[in-house]
Amino acid sequence: MSEKTFSLQDSLPSLTVPSVDETMDRYLETATVLLTPEETAKTRKAVEEFRKSKHVEFMQNALEDRAKRERNWLEDWWYDAYLEMRLPLVPFTSVASINPAGVRSSKREVQTLTAAEATHHMMKVWQKTRREEIPIMKSRGIVWDMKQNHVLFNSNRTPGKPKDRMDRYFKTESEGPCPSHVIVLCRGSIWKVEMEVKGEIRSSDDTVRILRHIQHESPQVTYSPITLTTTDRDRWAEARDELAGVCRENERNLRTIEESSFVVTLSDDVCPSEEESLRYAMMGRSETAWVDKCMNIIVMADSQMINQGDHSNLDAIVMLDALNKMGAVMRKGEWKVKESAWQSDLPERFNFQLTASLVTKINEADSQFEKMKHTFRAKVVRFTGYGNDRLKRVKIYTDTVVQIALQLAFYKVHGSFGPIYETASIRKFYHGRTETVRGLTRAMKEFGEGVREGKEEKEQLRLFKKAYDAHNHLMAEATNARGVDRHLYGLRKSLQSLNSGGKCQPKLPLPSLFTDEAWKKSGGDGNFLLSTSFIGYADGVYGYVCAMREDGYGTFYLTQPNQILLTITDYVGTKSDLDAYGREIEWSLNHLGKLIDAMEKYSKL
């Protein structure tokens, strides 16, 4: 019998705390790549003050004490970093994606067939998670933490002031009962569908009956509380309190939505292009998704499936993996419904009582949503020159090649380098999530300049190898929780805790390291011009999280046997140029391919 999904959690190592000296060595190396000699001298001084500071010593001691008490000293603070944000979840912290399992069809009834299959099979993933039948993730034989699979379903980011809270209602079968309903949205109406009937997941055939009923009985709602979830978090927190306070039925309805396994939406819209689908997945209509939930499966009128979900609760790759599991077993297109499998129950429609004040808030939220959804762009780049198969033969990591190509593309578009964030998983540690790979190294800068100057092939190849090795070293360090950003974030949170000790206690000042120009210039406080992440190898779901900065780019990519698929985003009306960035990514990948060909040529001489 295989190991249960969560059976090895206690065997995982606790998250470690690096020393101040080693973090400062790493920081100095990355922070000074773009600096002038004068700026570098100033930053070196800030770093040395940081190393020697008694205040920093207090902060480090406090952090190490916390690590003795908690197996993951970062976990609660990391959720704070999300939950304290007051911006709307869309488009700033949500994940949006396209699921190829949805087949476009002009026959309207195919929509309910696709939605029924999706709902049934995602509930089967829910059931396997309940029964702890999801295989434990391992990388090169090392067990990974599975906590994020535990919080994927039945979770909700509930608005609050001064910060939101993460409510989780999922339980395994050994832990106890768990809500087994889904929420279905249709034209602003909200329905509850119980998906576990007599201990079994409701069949796709019977789910079709339920969805047809919902589609038929859902006139367009003029003012839907769904819209309120899309506004900024303080306004939604106030509106939610007001909504819950109107009557007990409203309060019960809210709780039932928040406890649900996930959300399914039947949309009347059709997206004419891939780019429109990607934008709609993030921000289609303000009543399309309950954006506080981890997973909203949106089925368009032509049966295309797109997805939106809150990113604060878990990493995108966990959500996309579940969507791939669902899509892999779905039937494509039409299929004959077995009416003999139909049950007798009907779904419950929620009726919210709204005050004049809430109607005004809904109108304001919808107006804000309509303005916001035109502020960002998203497109797909399909590079078919090579993929994993080609690079495996020469023992080259595709991920590293992509990372170098992205920086080279940015350099070619803007004539300068920008700080780049790449996600590194630290799931080998208990409840670990991510560390930052600060991929702009001196070696990368030298390689980019060499390409731009048109240096001879052998010299470019030498510089490429240096950049390639430097990046791989950073990734290896980061996956061992030996990065820069998480430790420095922990030290700042320690300072915050120390300064909240009481009125009589003197406040410790923020070290000059965090006010030095190099801090933001190198990406500190989320100032990465390139925000990037590898999201898997599967030929399935692909999507994105928007860029961190208004003038930056977001880039999420799949590396497949014979192609590399990238979803790129930027914001409208800034210095970014999405079309040029996409073109230069293709050029850069082609150029790197030629250098890798040359590598083979020279190795045979």
TrEMBL record:
Molecular function GO labels: carnitine O-octanoyltransferase activity
Active site per database record: 311
Residue ranges annotated for the Choline/carnitine acyltransferase domain, each copy included: 15-583
Gene3D superfamilies recorded: Chloramphenicol acetyltransferase-like domain, Choline/Carnitine o-acyltransferase, domain 2
InterPro entries per the UniProt record, alphabetical: Carn_acyl_trans, CAT-like_dom_sf, Cho/carn_acyl_trans, Cho/carn_acyl_trans_2
This protein's record includes keyword Acyltransferase: yes
Keywords: Acyltransferase, Transferase
Highest taxon in the source lineage: Eukaryota
GO cellular component: peroxisome
Keyword Transferase: yes
Protein family according to the UniProt entry: Belongs to the carnitine/choline acetyltransferase family.
Alphabetical list of PANTHER family matching this protein: CARNITINE O-ACYLTRANSFERASE (PTHR22589), PEROXISOMAL CARNITINE O-OCTANOYLTRANSFERASE (PTHR22589:SF67)
Name of the protein described by the UniProt record: Choline/carnitine acyltransferase domain-containing protein
Protein source organism: Pristionchus entomophagus
